[in-house]
Design goal:
Chain lengths: 315, 180
């Protein structure tokens, strides 16, 4: 199915066919990174701005490398030393950048909905690199890409997402994407970290990890943000690790082919034991490699798109 | 109006004679590789390779090339074309590469393919094979091997149909007024 959207805002706003289009395009891009000359001229003459209002090393490095391998010109907008600290609004910052005739803005922002707001206001493409607790679509796309590489079609497959779902945009994007492709999703975590009524998105919820893993094809271990420990959402990291962490002993109780994913960075000994993170079930480094191909595909597709998301989705 | 230029018999006879010409003019042994341009060129290359292998009695190097990322009109098309991917499972250096496409028209696909090949290595020589040459070149690029030369008007659309994708081998021309 052809792609016509100018933005990538979230998986909530895409059809299953559009998600598959991105994943299929990503497969073609994955080959480029295996060549001696790891570069194609697909975005030659296009300018991409990486506008990160939250600290990010991995996502930003992945986007930057994707842009370079597509031959785009890049501006990295370092927000902490920019005029934001002088009181400029998001829209003013972006309008200033647009005055340079940029083609794509890759934005990460602490406020949920910031990319949607921008997409409506500017002509260039907007790619959401994570907004608040809302969505992180390229992370979910690379997770789903990795799963499809391992499992084929995801219809009827069972994916378990473990951890701080309440604060996780990765979880939310995964839920939208996986359910649209027909996978069964179970969320596991302490009740304080699972949003109320999330079952309405078509997922199951439990606090028993072993029960959820019984017939699981894959498990995605979300990162526990250590600063949350101070907010008394769970008693201690040690107890969290015991109930919701994945170590060798727990892994042995379940399917030998269970796929173990983590969006990184890992807290070794909390979400995953070192031996599981580095073990044969782990696809964590493949996720990183696939992220590059997925981001290349997204940048390539949105630069050819012209259509806005329907007004009710972006307003 | 749709006009048939070649049926399955004529189509396969063209492939036979293209294979003979390629065999005569390209190095024997492991020195020649057949590379099809996505999408129909891939299937034509496959057919030519089978013929060449039976002429030469040895396996031939084969690959597929997707030139989407190298097109010069990406900023002019309404939406990005579907990408099928490249697959070149051998080193290009010092090989004679025969690029295979279904139709040569403006020459821009061949130009993009040359750019793409350069990113993989440095072939000894690159030859161009087109089943149909319909004229209207916009670049100084000519095929080395041609199945058939068909005079067309700019508005005509040439359809090469292949068994693998379209259920039959044929060449049709949809004439301009009734644009497909």
């Amino acid at each position: 199915m052809p792609w016509d959207k100018k933005d990538l805002l979230g998986l909530e706003y895409l059809t299953a066919e559009e998600i598959v289009t991105i994943l299929d395009t990503a497969r073609a891009f994955s080959e480029i990174s295996t060549r001696t000359i790891k570069k194609v001229p697909a975005l030659r003459g296009k300018t991409v701005v990486n506008l990160f209002y939250e600290p990010s090393t991995r996502t930003r490095a992945s986007f930057e490398l994707a842009e370079m391998r597509l031959s785009a010109d890049i501006i990295n907008f370092n927000v902490s030393v920019s005029s934001v600290s002088k009181g400029e609004t998001l829209l003013d910052t972006v309008r200033n950048l647009c005055a340079y005739k940029v083609d794509v803005i890759v934005i990460r922002h602490a406020m949920s909905g910031a990319p949607m707001y921008l997409a409506r206001k500017v002509d260039c493409s907007v790619v959401n690199a994570g907004d608040g607790t809302h969505e992180h679509p390229t992370q979910a796309l690379l997770d789903i890409y990795t799963l499809r590489e391992k499992l084929g079609e995801l219809r009827g497959r069972h994916v378990v997402i473990v951890g701080d779902v309440a604060h996780s945009r990765v979880a939310r994007s995964n839920i939208w994407g996986l359910t649209k492709l027909g996978a069964r999703v179970t969320l596991v975590g302490p009740p304080t970290l699972i949003p109320r009524e999330i079952e309405q998105l078509g997922v199951q919820v439990t606090s028993d990890l072993d029960e959820a893993l019984r017939d699981a094809d894959a498990v995605n271990m979300l990162r526990i943000q250590r600063e949350r420990e101070k907010q008394v959402l769970f008693p201690s990291l040690r107890e969290y690790a015991k109930l919701f962490g994945l170590g060798q002993e727990r892994l042995k109780r379940h399917s030998r082919s269970l796929i173990v994913m983590h969006p990184g960075p890992i807290n070794r000994g909390v979400e995953l034991s070192g031996s599981v993170a580095d073990g044969p079930n782990s696809v964590i480094l493949e996720q990183v490699t696939n992220g590059l191909a997925v981001r290349m595909a997204v940048l390539f597709l949105v630069t050819g798109g012209t259509t806005l998301h329907p007004e009710h989705l972006t307003s | 109006m749709m006009r048939r230029i070649a049926d399955a018999v004529a189509f396969n006879r063209m492939l036979d004679s293209l294979a003979v010409k390629i065999d005569e003019q390209c190095p024997k042994g492991g020195g020649t590789a057949i590379v099809g341009i996505q999408r129909r060129g891939v299937h034509l290359a496959e057919r030519l390779a089978v013929r060449l292998e039976s002429l030469r009695g040895v396996p031939l190097l084969r690959g597929d090339l997707d030139i989407t990322f190298y097109r010069d009109d990406l900023s002019m098309v309404a939406q990005q074309p579907v990408v099928h991917g490249s697959h070149l499972p051998f080193a290009l250096d010092d090989k004679t590469i025969v690029l295979v496409d279904d139709v040569i028209y403006t020459g821009r696909t061949a130009r993009a393919a040359l750019d793409a090949l350069t990113d993989y290595g440095r072939p000894r020589a690159v030859r161009l094979c087109a089943l149909v040459d319909r004229g209207w070149r916009e670049l100084p690029i000519q095929p080395d091997f041609t199945g058939i030369v068909v005079p067309t008007r700019a508005k005509d659309v040439v359809h090469v149909r292949v068994r693998e994708l379209d259920g039959e081998d044929a060449i049709d021309i949809a004439e301009g007024e009734e644009e497909v």
